[in-house]
Structures are given as structure tokens and as C-alpha cells.
Amino acid sequence: MANPKRPGDRRVLWLALSFVVAFGLWEAVGRWPLSAAFPPFSQTFLAFVRMTADGSLAKAYLSTAQPLLIGFALCGIIGVGFGVWMGLSHTVEWFSLPIFIILQAAPMAAVVPLVTYIYGIGLTSKVLAVVVLAAPVIVMNSYKGIRNTNPSLVQMCRSFLGTRTQVVLKIILPHAAAMIFTALRLGLAMGFIGVVIAELLITPTGIGDLITYHSSVADFPEMFAAVASIVLIAAVTIHALERLERRLFPPEVRGS
Amino acid sequence: MSTDAIVELKGIGKTYETGVDALRDVNHAFPAGKLSTLLGPSGCGKTTLLKIIGGLIAPTTGEVCVKGKRVDGPGAERAFVFQDFALLPWATVLRNVAFGLELRGTPKEQRIEIARKFIGEVGLAGFESSYPHQLSGGMRQRVGLARALTVDADIILMDEPFSSVDEQTRRKFQEDMLDLLRHRQKTVIFVTHSIEEAAYLSDRIVLLSARPGTVSQIIHPNVDRGNKSPDEIRRDKNYLDAVDEIWQVLKKYLA
Amino acid sequence: MRVFGKRIPLSVSLVFWFVVWEAVGRLGVSSIFPPLSRIVAAGMTVLATEKFVKAAEISLRSFALGMAFALIVGIGLGVLMARVESIGRLLGTWVNVFVSAPISALVPILMALLGIGETTVVATVFLFAVFVIILDTQVGIRKADRSLIEMARSFGANGYQIYTKVLILSALPEILAGIRLAAIRGVKGVVIGQLLVSIIGVGELFELYSKHFLMEEFWALVIVVFAFALVVSEGIAYLERRVEFYAGAR
What we know:
The complex is a heterotrimer of chains A (256), B (255) and C (250).
Chain A: H1 7-31, H2 41-53, H3 56-88, H4 90-105, H5 112-119, H6 123-147, H7 151-159, H8 164-201, H9 206-216, H10 220-248, H11 251-254
Helix pairs in contact in A: 2-10, 3-4, 3-6, 3-8, 3-9, 4-6, 5-6, 6-8, 7-8, 8-9, 8-10, 9-10
Chain B: E1 5-15, E2 21-31, E3 35-39, H1 46-53, E4 61-66, E5 69-71, E6 78-81, H2 93-97, H3 99-104, H4 108-121, H5 137-150, E7 155-159, H6 167-182, E8 187-191, H7 195-201, E9 204-208, E10 215-219, H8 230-233, H9 237-254
Parallel strand pairs in B: 3-8, 3-9, 6-7, 7-8
Antiparallel strand pairs in B: 1-2, 1-4, 4-5, 9-10
Helix pairs in contact in B: 4-5, 7-9
Chain C: E1 2-3, E2 6-7, H1 10-27, H2 36-48, H3 50-83, H4 85-99, H5 107-114, H6 118-143, H7 146-154, H8 159-197, H9 201-211, H10 215-243
Antiparallel strand pairs in C: 1-2
Helix pairs in contact in C: 2-10, 3-4, 3-6, 3-8, 3-9, 4-6, 5-6, 6-8, 8-9, 8-10, 9-10
């Protein structure tokens, strides 16, 4: 008698299948003499293994992690704080909202060369690149989390004689917590983007260096492997955060 | 039971920033210990008026007096039950019911005890650790009612409490609510758009006119609840007369 | 914000900051921030130069081409993935990976494959934009009102009609939301692509002005590009608001 497959099993199956199809395609396209610069999956994978084994990947990420984590920590604390302040104070909102709306839509990467020429090519510039790209998203989402509080809950609290402090602490902040987590998740994604841009534009260090170097000596499998690794790491980290978010703040408990 | 006015409305008017005149010159005295209903055509401002009485909205003109003293905001003597329940989605039933006491700084053990008692009284014993999203609409409304009861206010304001609930649940809920409130000599001011509900539950009905709302008529159903069953009450002559009387008045606003 | 009880619109806030910028610039607080008036003047001059016009032309062209491809592929794939479950499951993981991935990491690969030129930038724009469109189109089609489809079937609609007369329109608000996000990303794609390729377009100009510390020209260009991003974004947002009710009561 066949065992009925649990939904989790099926999902894993599809996941495996999508990997197989994607890598299979990659292999096929790589072998096709389309471009010398496009190595098949197998070669890329081998290069990946090589680079992990000889520690070059690890060294690169150690270097990349610095501006990323520093920048993200800065953004996270200041950004969330400011976003919350914006949400709670109409005056602050009035002064800051137009600016952050623009910043969110704008290609902040344009500012990175300027940052470089002012602050040099060291860690500071890279941290700033991360901050400049991640801050708008974190601030705006924290702000929205506060602003979107259900007015009915606020009124209810007031009807039971809640003071403004109680309204903020017991209603607004718990309610905004979910969106603040989202803000941090999105901010981290932007942080990854920022650090990669910084490393490709400013001075190659870390993973940017690996990519640029291998590109310049036409070691395409190594280059692809480096690129794939950063894409993978970003994807896995963000996905993990998403799952955490869904566990901490299931949709029913978020309310609206 | 005293029939002194416990809530008095003097010249209440409300105009919104958009220029819409919601209420105009509403004057009324609500007697203590009775269940009064605000009834009227759609948009007549009955919820607005209830929130003004509750101190959640400020009137543009006029004043609200509770027990002879003017009030400008919410107060400990008035408790509000919301149409959309307004329960904290991230808190258990127990915490939600105790929320009013939590805001007042009642010590934790005490408020848990009081909350448990009222959770039992509204028929939700056993659900203390459940979350709002796990409950049906009717159950959520009971949580809202229990919360209002814990703060021991003299006046309970209910904003269409049964409109989000299905018919069978509604009738049962009405019975239970009547039982609960009768024994406590609370004053209840109730907003509904259901004529039958108003006639069934109320000691008196305040009919509001169409926008801008003002008091159009007061109706006393005089339904003798006595030893009658709910079904018998719904065939009581006074009940049927009251329903008809209300309908005749409201019909005019529909034309 | 209220002053004397009257609400002041947000746009005045921007004006306030323009004034502050002008003041700060005149005070000479930092050579990085010249007064706004000089920036505007420099901007006017720059806008007229042939160099800028050419850069703008190339950038706009890359943007438009990249977005066009992204729209076609994105909406097409999005619809396919929403309606055919197997394709949805197969590709879904990858779309999710690339939506939040640092796509700029892929630009060196694009440069290696497509050379140093406009093609790479177009490809960059395409990659920046397409995944959001796929995702939001999928969501929009999935959320489309089932009862509308049933209704259409009951009146004898065939497959094609259901798509064109019901599904796409019901999903339109969501699709437009995706396009708006994609357009913003597209602008970022043009700038980042050109910065990395570094010999054409506005990216090149940014690099140039930064290097020679021509702050007035730099900020003028920043304002132009930022304004463009904003206009495109708000334009689509306007369209979104107009078709919001297509989604019906969800």
C-alpha cells in the first residue's frame, strides 16, 4: 500500500527538481560553444569546491562581512529608531517623509563614487555604501509599521483610559514589531546589494575582489563560482529571515 | 431602580472637517439602569453620537454630562464595546479581557482573577489561552463584552455589537446579554440598525432622523418580559406594536 | 503638520529643504554641498550640452529596452507560472532567489559575456526588473477573483476570453504594483550597470563629476536622475490608483 506523500515531501521534491532542471540547463548551455566565457555547471561547481577547500572563499567573505555587518547594524539601530520616531511624531513625519520617499525610489548607487572620492577607498566608504542603500528601506518600513496601526485598537485603548505612553507601548509597538522585522529583512537584502556594489566599484576586496580578479585572468569557472556563492548566501540568509518572520509573526497574530 | 438621568446630552452637534454635518442639536437624558437604543436610518450619525458619549470623539458644539458633571473624554464610568471587536490579535483571551484593568495598573493576580470570572460569565470558560483568530465572530464579541464588564463601569456603550454575527448566534447572544446586564443594574446605551433587536431589547428607543441626525422620537416598547420565553415575547402585542411604530417613522426617511 | 490649525501639505516640506540647502550652500559649510541655486544653474548648462544629451539618450534607451523585455518576459512568465502549477513550482524558487539577490554581482558576468557596452546595461536593467514583475504578476493572477472566472464560464467564455476579459484585468492592480517596483529597480539598474561598465551614459557622468569634484554638476545630475525615477514611479502609482478597484472586494 503506497504511503500518501505529506505536503512537505512534495515541496522538497519540487525543490530538488527545480535545482536539477536549472543546473542541467546550465550544464547544457555551458557546453554549447556559445561563448568561451560561459562555463558549464560542472566546471563551476568544481571551481567552487576548489575555492572553498583552499580557503579563498572563506577569506573573501570574512572581508566582505565587515562592511556589511557594520553597515547593517548601524542602519538597523538608527534606521528603525528614526522610522519609529517618524511614525509617532507628525512633525518629524512632515519633515522627513518626502525625503525618504525620494530616497527609496532613487538610484542611491550614483552616490557611491562620490563617497569614494571623499572618504577614500577603505572600510568607511564601503560601510557608507551599505548604509546609503539600506537606510531608506529600513526607515520607510519601520515608519509604515507604526502608521498602519489599526485605529480601532488605538481607540479601544483610549476608551479604557489608556495614556499616550500606554497606547505606544501596548498597541503601536507590538503591532509594528512585525513590520520592523520586515524592514530589517529588506534592509539586509539592500545591504548585500550595497556591499557588492561597493566592492565592485570602490576597491575590490572580499568577494568583489574574487569576482574581479578571476574575471581579469579569464578564470571563468572561478568567477562564476564566486558570483554564484554570493547570490546563494544572500538568498539563503534572506530566506531564513523570512521563515523566522513567519514563525514570530504569523499573519493572524499580526492583525491589521 | 432610579430613573434619574445618568447621561445627559445638551445641544450636541458634530461637523466633520470635510464639512459634513453628522449631528445637530441632539438633546436627551438617558435614565439610569435602563437599556436605551439609538436607532435610525443609515448615516444618521448614531455611531458618532455613541462615540461622543463615550468621549472618543469631541462634539463640535454642546456637552455631555455624566452623573451631573460635564465630561470631555473617556472615563472610568463608561465602557465601550466595539463593532469590530478591537481585540489585540497577539494577546490571549485572558489578556484581552484583562486589558482594561491592565491599563489602570491593577496588579496582575487581581486582574487575572477578575478576568477569569467574567470570561466564565460570558460563556467562554476554557478559552482563556486561545487567540482571537481562533474564535468565531460571536465569541470574539463576547470577549469584548467581558472586557467592558471587568472595569465595572456604570454605563456600557455598545456599537452594533451583534451586526458582525449570524442570526442564530445573535439571538442567543441577546438573551445572554440581557441576563448579564439585568442583574447588574447597569445603564446600557446601544446602537443598532435592526428594528426587531431594538424593540426586543430596549426599555426605550431613541429614534434619530436622517443626516444631520437629531432626536426625532422616543419610543417605549413596554414589552412585558415577565415569565415569557423569548419566542413568546416576540409575539407579544407591545413588541409587535413597537416594531411597527418604529418602522412607520423610519419609512419616511427611506422615501 | 499644523501651523495655527491649518494643515500644511507635504510638498511644502520639500520647499523647506530646498531653502535649507540653499542656505547651507551659501554658508559654505561644506564644499560637497554648493547652494541649490548654483546647482540649478549648472544643471541648466549641463542639460544643454551635447555630452549630456547623448548620455541621456543612451541611458533612456537602455532603460526602455530593458524594461520592455522585462515586461514581456515578466508578465508572460508570471501568468504561466500562476496558471500551470508545475512551471510555477519549478521556477518559483529561482524567482524568489533572484528577487532579493544582489544582481549587481551578476554584472561582471554580463560584461564577460556581452562585452563592454550598451547591451550589458540593457541586460542589467532586464535582470533588475524582471523578477519583481514575475512575482507580482503571479500573485495578482492567483488572487484573481474565482467567482468572476466562474461567472465568465457560465456565460460561455472560452479560455482566451477568460484571460483577456477577466484574469488580466482583475490582476492589473497587482501587476501595476510590480511594474512600479520594477521601474524603480530599472533606473537603479541603468545607473549601476553604467557605473560598472563605466564608459557610457549617466553612470559615466557621475563617475566623471565625482572624480573632478564638480559638485554642482554632480548634484544637478543627481537631481535629474532622482527626479526621473520619482516621476516614473509616481506616474505608475497614479495608474495604479486609477485601476485599484479592478481588484474588486478581496
